[in-house]
Amino acid sequence: MAVFQFMSFELRKRGAIRPSCPELPSQCDSQPCMNGGVCSEGWNRFICDCTATSFTGPTCGKDATTLTFNGSQHMLISVPEESRTQTEDVTLRFRTTRPLGLLLTTSTEQSADRLELAVAGGRVRLTIRLGDKEKVLVAGQGLNDNQWHTLQFSRRGSGLKLQVDDDTPARADTVLGKQNILEFRTMHVGGLYHVEEEIQMTNTVPNFVGSMQQFSFNGHPYFEMARSSGGGYGGQQ
Asked: What are the residue boundaries of the EGF-like domain, all occurrences included (predicted)?
């Protein structure tokens, strides 16, 4: 049986109406987000953004999972079925002394599509290829300083946005192939290897050497998910 609730309204001058419910107090006044987390107002609750910190959890009070890569290791993430997306949101924190290293790339056996993020020349370089179209964006500089840096990438169809830390975002609106649909089945973090033959598949970007935290792809915090499930990351020793 459906339950309905009715809200009373009070007539005001000039024919306007307003709900008679009292204004809710600010949820962020108590400063619930710890360790540099940023608080925002939700519906009758606070929301802590821990993206630019080394912490996670509802109030940024839990140490974030940190993976350290030595150049012979990588993390392979396989999604249950072929993904086809027109929007992506990627967040990743990294620390390195190397000017060149692969952070993330997607792959599929069905096409040459890929979304790749790498440190290149001490900057973050994004390469996205859909069908026969490819676009490159770069952001940041001097990022191989052994300090933590936060990168955020978002795509909405043909609109691209890449940002590092609090720098001005790099943006592009570009024509991509295949109705702007990215196909992928796997994500490679920190390196790209052909497991069966144990050979490196990319000659253009070496494997990453350094540490990573806070990897999230379309809302899925994969490092935290791997820790919760007891999963790990692999590589050639």
From this structure: 24-61
